[in-house]
Model the fold of this input.
Amino acid sequence: MRVNFTARFFTAVFLISFIFISCKTSSQNIPVQKKFDDDVVKIVSSMSVREKIGQIFLMNFRFWKHSEIPNQEIVNEVYHTGTEKIPVTGVRRINPTIEKMIKTYHVGNVIIFTENLKDTDETVKFIYDLQNLAVKNNGIPMLIGVDQEGGRVTRIKQSVKFPPARQIGLTGDTEIAFTEGQYLAEQINAFGINLDFAPDCDVDSNPKNRVIGDRSYSTNPQTAGDFSLAVYKGLKSKNVIACAKHFPGHGDTAIDSHVGLPRIKKSKSRWLKCEAVPFKMNISEEIPMIMTAHIQYPALDNSKIKADRTQKAITRPATLSKKILTEILRGELGFEGVICTDAMDMHAISKNFTESRAVIEALNAGADLICHPLEVISFEDISRVEKMYSDIEKAVSDGTLPVERLDDAVMRIVQLKKDYRILYRKYSEPSKKDFDNTKKILTQKKYQDFADRFKQ
Done:
């Protein structure tokens, strides 16, 4: 990272001050500009546009083309970029392409999946290697995230599987939810993971909903809020970043956004009394991150956007909606943390928008951290990575994506890393003692005792 940043630093301070003053005098739906620490502003001011792009990306290195790692077993076949089905293996260690992504493309954050977690020792080493590369080459450690909710969304198989949110909510005891949050944090911390995509803040308001269902704590908005808030506080008590999901609420959908684009027909007044409640409760306690939902919600934003893959005009999905993310989430609800998209390779987005267009639209809408901006499973994908970076750079240079919006996104992410004691952390090569300690943590009896309380 370059250190000659003086001019850009004072420019950034001026811009931040100007935006802050402007926002205070404009509509109440326009959020007041978040204040960032001086060292965070300095760090971001010293970055090139490419370095900034790296910081807003949350990449998954879940699968790899089997022909490039022929000595590992085939674990799946995936439709790569929607064109052909390719045999893949799970990624369990750094390879030259991943190294290039971090060194050349400055990737700043990674999400971990079960395929990365097959062997405990390998996973600890893999996560250390990711962080070591990031610090050596970019000067900033990574957010390493995982979906560890309990129930059917449990990535870590070496430890006890906790009950789904619905069962936790039915106890009526938020202390149980707080304890679960602590235990989830301990499980992921054992590997060096610092971000949990939990709690689920969706209200289970549609019995036909297959993607949420028992991942929700309740059909009652207040109860869903009480229990999701308790889980967030449990995670926070162990210094793990929590992420409330899926804003503005995925509970009343009948279509899974992994395979299609759901549409919700509720009025805004009904949304305020139902889906908004758990998010408002968590925002009031300063939850650090909120994940978007790839859903259409015309009562919140009925504007149209041309889907460049289909050439059809569709109602803007929430992930690409400035009205929903900036005016409502930030302006009306007052959220100042990091807005993270749901995975951009889910069909709700990827079937309608090209990769670069989706990312640029999401950033302009107000998203900060872009989850799965594109799929990388082979050295051949580097050309697609280069195209996306070039497209975003062009959008910044021609004003399609204002540099102030990009800077704001990066500063929120870097500030979050500082707030959770990640930014200046040093990483040591894991030893046998570290490997043994991870296994010891994952197999604690208290986890099984907790899970056993819910057995019928």
Observations:
- DSSP finds 17 helices and 15 strands in the chain.
- The domain at 54-452 is CATH 3.20.20.300 (TIM Barrel).
- The chain has one domain: 54-452.
